[in-house]
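Entry for the shared binder. Reason: the reviewer on the internal report wants the predicted structure included alongside the sequence.
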Amino acid sequence: MNLSSLLKTADLLRNEKFLAWKIDRKTKKVSAVVTSAQRHYSVADIARQWGVSTDLVRSVFADEPGVLRFTRPRTKNKRQYETLRITASVLVRVHTRLSAAA
């Protein structure tokens, strides 16, 4: 783990909402293969549930495998946009990994 990852983890582990977030047993058992049938969370959904900023959520899930990325390319007059959708199985995996770091 690099310094940036440690700081992100430390921020999350100080947050009461993140620590109180519960994993639904049904969600945990959903197969990662069936991603289209899973609930897809937006960055704002997760930030609200965990009580952290959307910037922190984006940085935590930036390089996470299984995150869906929708990118609108940059044009002459508009900047590039990237929308992230995080499946339930990825959300549970990341939460479990970060909680274990405590």
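Summary line for the report: The two ends are 14 Å apart (CA to CA).
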